[in-house]
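#dry-run=false #mode=assembly
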Amino acid sequence: MPSLHAFANPARFLKIARPLTPVLLLLGAALVAIGCWAGLTRTPADYLQGETVRILYIHVPAAWLGMGGWSGIAISSLVFLVWRHPLADVAARAIAVPGATFAALCLVTGAIWGRPTWGTWWQWDGRLTSMLLLFFVYLGYLALAQADRERGGDGRIPALYGLAGTVLLPIIRYSVVWWNTLHQGASIGLTRSSIDGAILWPLPFTILGFTLLFGAIVLMRMRTILARAKAEARLRRKARPAVVA
Amino acid sequence: MTAKNQRLALALLAVGAILAAALLALSGLKDQAAFFYAPGDVARAVPPPDQAVRLGGMVQKGSIRRARDGVSIAFVVTDGRATTPVTFSGIAPDLFREGSGVVAEGHFNADRSFTATNLLAKHDEKYMPPEVAGRMHETTTLED
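#status=ok
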């Protein structure tokens, strides 16, 4: 019976991850390059913001991956807590660094965008503040996962933290609906967008491209974590007879 | 109920409880977490002059008056329910214009007008090239 546990075997995972990594990496880089080139040269400027609007092609994927990364941590944490799936713990820890990086990239590009359009680098409005909180929650996760590993924990405490942090995702999403904010409302819905097609079309390229790059980074980090665990286990086995003798 | 199902139910219950608690806290926070007041929010009770507040809304069309000193401007902020006259001395952001969103930092005066110490421009979620915008919005040119 094919079950979730078919993928719990690290050897089987590595067999898929090893060839998949360069594919994701190259495809992602190509899509990002096409999207950035088109976004810089092939699209018109905005009627109100002028050329500044082009930072959209980086800011939106960064925001998507900052939040998507935490969704990944939450799902992995749930799978780890419920099904005790060892790879889920590895995945959650592998996602945290790129997730935090993209959340930071979202904040930085947002500040660079905000200065010429809104007239400020930073304001404590609902959207900006909740996104900054997500970045801090990422940092907390990294510290907690590291501490848990060092004291020989089984990963359950970071997994609980990963589940609890999910609470920020709907807050970020709906902050612009619930409160008066400086940040504008959502431009892109499931079926429609208030961004004109002429400006919008490179955006799917950079969103998909950065997502594939994110996937490649996660796979690389998962392989690193597995390799380190293997090396540590081998060292422990080697060290044991010496201690006994 | 197997141990696995028990853990699943427990985890989902915990997430649900945390979400519910957060939503409850946020709904209690609702007005305090707002970034600015709209003119309609303060129509009944104007905050005292010594309280620093933000006022946000649309700059009413045709309301911007520039003073002779070159840096002072006066305009009217509206949210469709009420209006507030605002005065400001300084450099306004590029996107500050009539019919567009603005957030003014400053304080209310006794006569319900607002003195701004800083202006922020707020734009909406629409992005379009100038040709498309030209078809949708009335544009004014210098050549009459």
